[in-house]
Design brief:
This protein has 858 residues and is α+β, with helices and mostly antiparallel strands. The chain contains 26 helices and 24 strands. The strands form five sheets. Strands 1-2-3-9-8-6-5-4-12-11-10 form an eleven-stranded antiparallel beta sheet. It has a five-stranded mixed beta sheet with strand order 17-16-18-22-19, with helices on one face. The protein has a three-stranded mixed beta sheet with strand order 7-13-14. Helix 7 packs across helix 10 and helix 17 runs parallel beside helix 21. The radius of gyration is 32 Å and the shape is elongated.
Length: 858
């Protein structure tokens, strides 16, 4: 029978030719669907021979040449293990060493003469004593990942199984295929490298080879279902698999609350006596238990330990440690001393089995990448939310992003930043800030974008305030460096960088402080709710409002001081203007090209773009505070009319009136031969697109419907924009320069898209309740076009120069085509029917002109 399988395999390969190959089965595995008799169970010494290299641990593992056997104690059957898959070494272009592939809960199960490896889900639960638990089990049967024949029995009848193919064939649920962009798996080039066994875990490292079929255009095969990432048709990687026994006694979980930010694990509990399916949410956190439960502050039984990747450049190691241990004071408020520490890993001579991929160790990985980013994921117990380990990923080029941001935001405020490159002591402090932020994610804390709007702007220029409160209440905001401060404020440079704030200390206390006497999560609810009352008198302890749908104008990314966004952006723009004056002296270096100058100039535009966004979102926006039943007041309050109108007035003056401070020929002529006009227009158009987003206009109309004349109306917004965009038409002989001509044409094109473009299916599905508002909006836009046409008609032949006159006539022609597209030429009609590339119908339609976002959690 074995010979027949081999013949069939060769015949199949010959028939397929160059087309994609199916996964190759190992010689001892029959094809799918073929049933064979169970092999005979042999004497132990016939299976585990004298050639075996054996290691004792939670299982006993045996390596015999290229085979790997598990000897599973009967007591370990039915236990929950966390299976963590990681790329230890990868092929060029497909991730980095340390990249997480996935994790899942597994359970080993004895089934007569076989052992099954099952994948376990905890998404739906019910108490075992509840009748509905039978239905829950019937609806949530655990999947079998692989089945193994029992080869022999060891001590105390422990089954011995050959698990080689678990690591040398492709198991879909454990595969790295998606990350690699591969389409095939070659077992002939896959093998187990090493295995280590410990009392709570088993670590296996395996070389695996993935493939991509030859050029599909040649073979005629279907195109790949996912983007190809491997640089070659074959990619060999080293996978590290950790199987860690989950705690026998699960940590008591803590119930989540929307009013304070934690990542959560969710499950539906059908055993609760309510007239609905109840979703239980528990916060994600580490297990911290006091050595001395009676002490107000005690060391933990087991502290949180992060190891510094040996690949980290040595000069940055002290700053990585500093970034980790910055959280120490926050844990002291929760009752723990030395709760979080950083260590250097042991040397190979000290511990030859230590590996950064070992799921017992949390490691800050340093990755050789041009990506400007860092991330802070964690691996947690799905039953309780207990964090088991966390591997922070720091991409090498995050240093370049930090350099650019610090220089463009606060370069005029720090003498060390007046010239690039920045000194190592400053770069080290910036890196420590990144590490502290990412560690915060591993502690369970998500972003809190509300924080940047909870301090008065004037306090951000007060050194005494900054010493105790910082310029933002939490390090978990995307609020970078204090660009609101001015040179005359004499702010010490160390106070320009975010650090652990009052919200961070409050959140760690709320999530980690033990509550004596609580035996169940429900027993903690009253105390947790009592702690949250501090948010009423200290607004800076609040968290982002759940389900605010982007309407809260104080929940901005990259914002400093958006409690008064107009004032904050005014001050931030002054610093950007100072940076422009610094560029030529600070950036270009002798005997180097002008690449850095171009990047920093683009960074200035990107920074200004972000700050303008904080003003634009005031229009149609809300102030919010998350509340639960029993708290007085509403959750959402429309921003007052005066603040909204002031925002539009500011934008008319700051960005619609040409910002000549950005047009610097002495810089631009060193960077490029052309492009300044289109770049400025892109920025201006993005502001207009944000102001005219359908969701924003719909909110303005709803605010008018609910609150009447005291609100800022959509018609007033359009009228205010008209006065700012067509100011020249108030003159008897208008003169319109090229910057303004471009902007006016872009405005009419944008209205054309809003009136005549048919919404895409995803946009219509995302906003099904806006259809009536969209009809009103079209009427408003049509009325606005007629108002503009009236202004143009009065001046159409009175331009101060020929170009202005021709421009005004052309605008009238455009308006006529927009109002009645039937008269548009074919090309114009086609353009009117197709939304402009890159324009979005959401609030966040601001293209980042220079830099990607930083610190994305996973």
């Amino acid at each position: 029978m074995l010979r027949r399988w081999i013949v069939l395999a060769f015949a199949s390969a010959a028939f397929a030719g160059a087309q994609e190959q199916p996964p190759v089965q190992p010689a001892d595995t029959p094809p799918a669907g073929v049933r064979v008799a169970e092999p005979a169970i042999r004497p132990y010494e016939k299976v585990i021979t004298s050639d075996a290299r054996s290691k004792q641990g939670v299982f006993t593992v045996h390596q015999i040449r290229d085979r790997l056997y598990y000897e599973i104690p009967k007591a370990e059957f039915g236990k929950d293990f966390l299976w963590v898959s990681t790329l230890a070494r990868t092929t060029l272009g497909a991730g980095y060493g340390g990249t997480a592939v996935g994790n899942r809960v597994v359970r080993w199960e004895r089934n007569e003469r076989r052992v099954l490896l099952r994948s376990v889900s905890y998404e739906v639960v019910a108490g075992e004593d509840e009748p509905i638990s039978r239905a829950v089990r019937a609806a949530n049967n655990d999947s079998i990942l692989m089945s193994f024949a029992i080869e022999a029995f060891g001590k105390d009848d422990a089954p011995v199984i050959d698990v080689t193919r678990l690591f040398t064939t492709e198991v879909t649920e454990l595969s790295a295929r998606r990350i690699l962009g591969a389409r095939g798996f070659d077992t002939a080039r896959s093998f187990v490298e090493r295995v280590a066994a410990f009392p709570e875990n088993i670590e296996v490292q395996a070389t695996q080879t993935y493939t991509i079929p030859p050029d599909t255009a040649v073979t005629g095969a279907a195109a790949p279902a996912q983007p190809v990432r491997m640089r070659q048709n074959t990619g060999t990687v080293v996978m590290h698999y950790s199987m860690v026994r989950l705690p026998e006694k699960p940590m008591m979980p803590r119930l989540a609350d929307d009013r304070l930010g934690f990542f959560t694990v969710r499950r539906y509990d059908y055993g609760v006596d309510e007239h609905r399916a109840v979703e239980r949410r528990h916060i994600v956190r580490w297990r911290l238990e006091k050595k001395d439960p009676s002490a107000a502050i005690s060391e933990p039984v087991k502290p949180i330990v992060f190891y510094v990747d040996p690949a980290t450049p040595s000069k940055w190691v002290p700053y990585v440690i500093k970034g980790v241990e910055a959280w120490g004071p926050a844990f002291e408020e929760a009752g723990f001393r030395r709760a979080i520490i950083a260590r250097l890993p042991p040397s190979p001579s000290e511990d030859p089995d230590w590996s950064p991929e070992d799921a017992r160790y949390s490691v800050i990985r340093w990755l050789p990448s041009t990506t400007r980013n860092a991330s802070g994921p964690n691996v947690h117990d799905p039953r309780t939310g207990e964090v088991l380990e966390a591997d922070i990923q720091v991409y090498h080029n995050v240093l370049a992003l930090l350099r650019d941001w610090y220089f463009t935001q606060v370069g005029p405020l720090d003498p060390r930043a007046r010239k690039l490159p920045l000194p190592d002591d400053l770069m080290g402090d910036l890196l420590a800030y990144v590490i502290t932020h990412e560690v915060g994610h591993t502690l369970g804390l998500p972003h809190n974008f509300k924080a940047s709007a909870l301090y008065p702007v004037d306090k951000l220029r007060d050194p005494e305030w900054l010493k105790t409160m910082g310029h933002v209440s939490t390090l978990m905001d995307y609020s970078r460096f204090n660009y609101v401060a001015q040179p005359e404020d004499n702010i010490p440079p160390e106070l320009l960088i975010p650090r652990i704030g009052p919200y961070d200390r409050f959140a760690v206390m709320w999530g980690y402080k033990p509550i004596p006497g609580a035996a169940r999560p429900e027993d903690e609810k009253a105390t947790l709710a009592e702690w949250l009352k501090a948010q009423e008198t200290s607004p800076y302890l609040r968290f982002s409002t759940a389900r605010s749908s982007g309407a809260d104008a104080g929940e901005n990314t990259e914002a400093v001081g958006d409690a008064d966004a107009v004032q904050a952006t005014t001050l931030g723009t002054r610093n950007l203007q100072r940076v422009m004056d610094m560029l030529l002296d600070a950036v270009p270096r002798p005997d180097e090209n002008y690449e850095d100058l171009g990047a920093i100039y683009a960074g200035v535009l990107g920074q200004w773009n972000r700050e303008l966004n904080h003003v634009a979102v005031l229009v149609g926006g809300f102030d919010s505070q998350d509340k639960y039943g029993g708290q007085p007041g509403v959750r959402f309050t429309p921003i007052p009319r005066e603040r909204q109108q002031a925002a539009v007035k500011y934008l008319n003056g700051a960005v619609m009136a040409t910002p000549m401070w950005l047009i610097r020929p002495d810089i631009l002529r060193r960077v490029e031969p052309a492009g300044a006009l289109s770049r400025l227009l892109t920025l201006q158009r993005s502001v207009l697109s944000t102001l005219l987003a359908p969701a924003r206009l719909a909110r303005l109309q709803e605010q008018e419907a609910l609150d009447g004349d005291k609100t800022y109306k959509a018609a007033e917004l359009l009228a205010d924009l008209r006065s700012g965009l067509f100011t020249e038409l108030s003159a008897a002989a208008p003169k319109i320069d090229i910057y303004r001509r471009n902007l006016q044409r872009a405005y009419l094109d944008l209205i054309d898209e809003r009136i005549n473009a048919r919404p895409t299916a995803p946009a219509a599905a995302a906003a099904p309740l806006l259809s009536s508002a969209a009809d009103d909006t079209r009427a408003l836009f049509r009325g606005e076009l007629r108002a503009i046409d009236g202004l143009l008609a009065a001046r159409a032949n009175a331009g101060a120069d020929r170009v202005t006159t021709l421009h005004m006539r052309e605008l009238r022609d455009r308006i006529a085509r927009v109002l009645d597209p039937r008269f548009a030429p074919p090309a114009a009609a086609a353009a009117a029917a197709t939304p402009a590339q890159g324009l979005e119908d959401e609030d966040a339609c601001w293209p980042d002109l220079a830099l990607p976002y930083l610190f994305q959690p996973r």
